[in-house]
């Protein structure tokens, strides 16, 4: 998680304002317009309601205090500016304190379609609307507390739970399959791919998720679905660390993807 990045996060000035260039605001504007079209009829209701509450500007990158005012009112959360990449320790510490890390840079035009590391568009457009939902917010908070207290070798298992829920979570609703994971909601390619016949989609069982390997640089071969956002609240009340211990005993499932070649790792 603390690998190097070619991007540098922008620092807020004394007033807490980040100065974005016209080109950066234009990239934001184009990303938002494209993705709003893409998620129509695919994002879950909770996300769309959250998006309405946050009321994102379409013509410029929002300032963090604008997002904070809404999150504070709805669930007591805040967003916190961070460098382009942070380590697990800092990541869990922030979540445990109801602070969602936001890398304050936006992708270049060359990486408009796909960016491996999370930028401000991914963090704010992908995640912040869901953080207005109490069940989702509680799950994320509890997850941060668990992760912050966990040993390093257990954090790898916890990372899988976050990956298959907060980042790439799906929900099976009365109206069909809906997306709540920010990694899908901020990616046009992944949004379309989820609805193709390519990925395998299974009902979420925490024990299974903890044993499922993933790669961050490919379309996911497997997703897990919940049936309601309240399922996340229920998971947050489980003894997750005992499930982690059991997952360690059982071992990982066979990966559903080819290994990265050694040069790329």
Automatic annotation (TrEMBL):
EC number, UniProt record: 1.14.16.1
Domain of life, per lineage: Bacteria
Xref: PROSITE patterns: BH4_AAA_HYDROXYL_1, BH4_AAA_HYDROXYL_2
Family annotation (InterPro entries): ArAA_hydroxylase, ArAA_hydroxylase_Fe/CU_BS, ArAA_hydroxylase_sf, Aro-AA_hydroxylase_C_sf, Aromatic-AA_hydroxylase_C, Phe-4-hydroxylase_mono
Matches recorded under Pfam families: Biopterin_H
GO MF term set: phenylalanine 4-monooxygenase activity
UniProt keyword annotation of Oxidoreductase present: yes
Catalytic reaction(s) noted: (6R)-L-erythro-5,6,7,8-tetrahydrobiopterin + L-phenylalanine + O2 = (4aS,6R)-4a-hydroxy-L-erythro-5,6,7,8-tetrahydrobiopterin + L-tyrosine
Keyword terms: Iron, Metal-binding, Monooxygenase, Oxidoreductase, Phenylalanine catabolism
Cofactors demanded by this protein: Fe(2+)
Pathway stated in the Swiss-Prot or TrEMBL entry: Amino-acid degradation; L-phenylalanine degradation; acetoacetate and fumarate from L-phenylalanine: step 1/6
Domain Biopterin-dependent aromatic amino acid hydroxylase family profile: 1-265
Classification via SUPFAM superfamilies: Aromatic aminoacid monoxygenases, catalytic and oligomerization domains
Matching NCBIfam families: Phe4hydrox_mono, PRK11913.1-2
Family from the record: Belongs to the biopterin-dependent aromatic amino acid hydroxylase family.
Record-given protein name: Phenylalanine-4-hydroxylase
Organism from which the protein derives: Pseudoalteromonas obscura
